[in-house]
């Protein structure tokens, strides 16, 4: 009688587990990819392992190697957050210039042709005389191109004590920072979100 009761209890436990525990669902790979994309869209900072846990809760138990393959093929890899590059120039308040070549301001303006192609203009202004020293127009203007234009301008007008610019990628590039170090020209960056600090351009 005792063995019969124990067997009956085991059968009841197995029946309860079949009812309560999720079973692996035999969906096709297309459905698995669809759910993986949907979950990744809802949980943008979840990697494939954590997404696998969410899938398992739905009964979609997948081998971790297969899950990783699908995760990569769908382009769902979590991108590492990179810290913003900080410029090495000074941002302390600067004095009003009182002579030529004491300070030059640099900035970009941009526009587009009638066919939609965009172009950029590098403007260089002497803050004392308010003279436009150079306007360089091109489809693309890199930091290295800026340094070449500055070298050409210095050969004709003399070297400034300081250049002033915003925090754009060209202005804070390695080429510009290295040029300032090699030439001894000071580099001043305006405060972020304060374009009026570079109002001469």
Characterise this structure:
By secondary structure, the protein is an alpha/beta fold. The chain has 2 domains: 24-80; 103-198, 2-Layer Sandwich (Nucleotidyltransferase, domain 5), CATH 3.30.420.10. It has helices spanning 2-20, 29-42, 48-57, 64-73, 143-157, 174-183; strands spanning 103-112, 118-126, 132-138, 162-165, 186-189. A 5-stranded mixed β-sheet has the order 3-2-1-4-5, with helices on one face. Helix 6 (174-183) links the parallel strand 4 and strand 5 (186-189). Helix 2 crosses helix 3 (48-57) and helix 5 (143-157) runs parallel beside helix 6 (174-183). The longest helix has 19 residues, at 2-20.
Layout of strands and helices, then pairs:
Elements lengths: L1 H19 L8 H14 L5 H10 L6 H10 L29 E10 L5 E9 L5 E7 L4 H15 L4 E4 L8 H10 L2 E4 L12
Task: Spell out the key features of this protein.
alpha/beta; 6 helices; 5-stranded mixed β-sheet; 201 residues; Nucleotidyltransferase, domain 5
């Amino acid at each position: 009688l005792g063995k019969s009761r124990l067997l009956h209890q085991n059968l009841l436990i197995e029946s309860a587990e079949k009812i309560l525990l999720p079973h692996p669902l035999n969906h096709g790979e297309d459905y698995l990819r669809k759910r993986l994309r949907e979950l990744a869209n809802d949980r943008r900072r979840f990697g494939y392992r954590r997404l696998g846990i969410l899938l398992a809760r739905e009964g979609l138990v997948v081998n971790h190697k297969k899950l990783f393959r699908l995760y990569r093929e769908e382009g769902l890899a979590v991108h590492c957050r990179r810290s913003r590059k900080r410029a090495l120039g000074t941002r302390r308040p600067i004095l009003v210039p009182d002579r030529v070549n004491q300070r030059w301001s640099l900035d970009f303006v941009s526009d587009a042709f009638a066919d939609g192609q965009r172009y950029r203009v590098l403007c260089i202004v002497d803050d004392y005389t308010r003279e436009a020293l150079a306007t360089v127009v091109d489809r693309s203007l890199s930091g290295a191109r800026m340094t070449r234009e500055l070298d050409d301008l210095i050969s004709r007008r003399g070297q400034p004590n300081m250049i002033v610019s915003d925090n754009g990628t060209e202005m804070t590039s390695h080429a510009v920072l290295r040029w300032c170090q090699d030439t001894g020209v000071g580099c001043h960056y305006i405060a972020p979100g304060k374009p009026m600090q570079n109002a001469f351009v």
